[in-house]
Amino acid sequence: LPVTPVGARTAATHCPYCALQCGMSLTAEPGRTVDVTPRQFPTNQGGLCQKGWTSAAVLDAPDRLTTPLLRGGDGELRPASWDDALDVVAGSVTRIQQVHGPDAVAVFGGGGLTNEKAYALGKFARTVLRTANIDYNGRFCMASAAAGANRAFGVDRGLPFPLTDLAGADAVLLLGSNLAETMPPSVQHLAGVRSRGGLVVVDPRRSATAALTGEPDDLPVTGGAGPVGDQGVHLQPVPGTDLVVLLALLHVVVTEGLLDGEYVAARTTGFDDVRRAVAAWWPERAETVCGVPAGRLRHVARVLAAASPARGGAGAYVLTGRGVEQSTQGTATVTAAINLALALGLPGRPGSGYGAITGQGNGQGGREHGQKADQLPGYRKIDDPAARAHVAAVWGVDPASIPGPGRPAVELLRSLGARGAAGTYAEDGRPRALLVHGSNLVVSAPDASRVEANLRALDLLVVCDVVPSETALLADVVLPVTQWAEEEGTMTSLEGRVIRRRQVTEPPGEARSELWVLAELARRLGSTVVFPTEPAAVFDELARASAGGAADYSGLSHARLDADEASGGPGLFWPVPAAGASLSPHPGTPRLFLDRFPTPDGRARMVAVDHVGPSDDVRADAPVYLVTGRVLQHYQSGAQTRRVPELDRSVAAPFVELHPVLGVRLGIADGERVRLTSRRGHVEASARWTDRIRPDTVFMPFHWGSAGSVNRVTTDATDPVSGMPEFKVCAVDVRSVKRA
Ligand code: SF4
What we know:
The protein is α/β, with parallel strands linked by helices. It folds into 3 domains: 80-137 and 362-533, Rossmann fold, CATH 3.40.50.740; 143-356, Dimethylsulfoxide Reductase, domain 2 (3-Layer(aba) Sandwich), CATH 3.40.228.10; 624-739, Barwin-like endoglucanases. The radius of gyration is 25 Å and the shape is globular.
């Protein structure tokens, strides 16, 4: 597909993949592939990873979707006109809702959608479909961090400070994030803390990030701090016990008098309960559960305390990632991390803080504008009457017509199906139709075989995507949509920085923006609600809807973002309220919590939590822990990166990492084909011996579908607070396929 440039051939934009949103320039010339050049931007400082350098290849992927597809009576997907495809969707939706009720049609969004698309999708679900059932794949990604931060701070902005602030810290505690592989340019911001020996990484694997500590590749040591690396410390807990590590660290801070008592008294509530909760987690006891030697726990607590401003240090950060958040204890673990940071007096102090490393490209903006089951634009709660009234006024609807909270993603996927069943949604609670935007659910959702079976049992599955993903291939209707370099819009980085995405090429074939698709469907479904299709106009409406909310964009517009960038500005961080009577544009808010937390009393809430353990622990018939994650070359479900020849050639198939000690014990040689079996199902891949993982644990990346999908094995048990699934630990039997 030769690209067709529009207007200016070169545009400053950002990478289509992760939340680092690296700055890049794109150049398009007729008949040639788009050229990618890195550019200076605060998060990447001129760097790109392999995914960014090769990102243009997805624009002209050989199997790029260029026309709508309709499944015929013979079961085959065939090209169709937009009119026919949209008529089928509108007709089926109408029929299903007439028979089963409005909630029988569900919507599933994505953390890669632009802010404008995420906003329009939430508005479409609530005003046109009038369904409560909308959620998105950020539930697999940021839900625990969001729940923990909202509870503690009254607001959730992944990093409430610019990423570049990390450079000056004396210590960074990084829990469950392999950013050296998932977002490599970010590692440069850790150079300072590494040079001061203050990087602490918590991960059951000696990941590329854990290796940055400079620790030798030994098994966990016993006694004392052990062989600490010249740039930091790597703690290798038993999977599912990160919370115990945090409880023990806070125990040491409390019992050794290392906390910032003045800060705790002035800026927090709940400390006494937390102190009591950690009293029983002395390091020797914690070691028996998490496997991290007590001496190392004490050492790390002292390193963090020494780095805190209260003790004269340059500053310290506590950061969490999916490794500790994708757990049935995810919110509790985030809460424990926040408690630790608050006890040390870090949040809201320049040069210190707590933050969560957002993963998906618009994982931050994706959870602010209304595609989440329990939220309205502006990061407002959907059950808040004032929020409903404000948003209803912007949408031009009756507040009472906006449905209440829907089901979180995993619960929603579990409830799907019931093809041909006669009952109504009110009777059986099962949606009959699902509209999917930007999610490859049969690869990325937990217990993927059950998800696939439920999708197959729907009366209607509609998928909007850019390529025929594994999920699109199951659909009754596939709608080809624009991506990245083919559209205008905005994204919000992992730091809450609102940035512009710019178009350099025309969409191929008949691909259209979801903004147009939603407007057309709204019209066909008889809605009188107005759906603008120009991204700048959608953004203006989004900004009005967000006014006064936690994530307030009301002082922003595409024009202001463009002008800020043209004048050398690095983007604006929300909240950015409208100027109002002052007439002076709000400068944005790079750092939150400097004076107070946005809670009713202005203080952060410390909440006591305790360790329960994973939902699916090892046992005789499944004696090995499985953890899942990503590799450098691939992004999320791999639907995009598996279509980039350089990346696909580099890592073409899934693999299972296991320690040689485990390999010998199980009689599995390096390179041998192995089968992992859990209560949900099994998956096969090649064994890869490495001494960079615990001997009781195997690791498998999740970027592949079909028989190579590790999510056929993972559990769909979820965190009771956030709805986050437990991707990061389940019990498996591991054996050679020869003996399976
Ligand atoms: Fe940057 Fe992430 Fe893109 Fe890599 S994938 S270039 S780290 S935005």
